[in-house]
């Protein structure tokens, strides 16, 4: 009987460590201000290649949106791998990115943005609907709209209709700047 209690106590102790670890505050460095801060549920963020980049205050995402490559490079943010080819992203280039539902996706080469644009559902596991905020798995049949070069996918037709009435209300990021010649 004491062996069972020992195993149970050990298991509960490990579970307690897991809960304590899960509750430990996450630290981040704001890419705009360079400030170290504790991430909270209310901390603003923008997803870059599916990973959140957190900001220290509500004003920072707007500054970031004007030139994300500048802030990502200065903060040395790991943007992960190209969603299409899974290759390393060697340079943050506005011509090698796509904006989908206010999320940034960077690519490894010039061919990847076109492949991504044709079938984003192949490369994106989950998006937040720009109108409802609910997460969903995009499909080839997901309703869609474009604003400039930005793509917006929706969980249903009613969200798309609300977006189409007032797209500026839901568009948060800047489009890529034209390539310099």
Give a written overview of the molecule.
- This protein is α+β, with helices and mostly antiparallel strands and 181 residues long.
- The relative contact order is 0.11.
- The strands form 5 sheets. Strands 1-2 form a two-stranded antiparallel sheet. A two-stranded antiparallel sheet has the order 3-4. A two-stranded antiparallel sheet has the order 5-6.
- The protein is built from 5 helices and 10 strands, in the order αββββααββαββββα.
- The chain folds into 2 domains: 54 residues, no CATH class; 95 residues, no CATH class.
- Helices cover 29% and strands 20% of the residues.
Topology:
Elements: H1 2-23, E1 26-29, E2 36-39, E3 45-48, E4 51-54, H2 60-66, H3 68-74, E5 97-100, E6 103-106, H4 112-118, E7 127-128, E8 135-136, E9 144-147, E10 150-153, H5 157-165
Antiparallel strand pairs: 1-2, 3-4, 5-6, 7-8, 9-10
Overall, the morphology is globular
What Rg, in angstroms, do the CA atoms define?
Answer: 20 Å
**Average pLDDT level:** 87
- Spatial strand arrangement across the major sheet: 1-2
SSE string: HEEEEHHEEHEEEEH
How many DSSP helices?
A: 5
Number of domains: 2
- Measured by DSSP, the beta-strand proportion falls in 15-25%
Q: Indicate the structural class.
A: alpha+beta
Largest sheet: 2 strands, antiparallel
Runs with pLDDT <50, length 5+? 5-21
Number of strands: 10
Q: State the helical fraction.
A: 25-40%
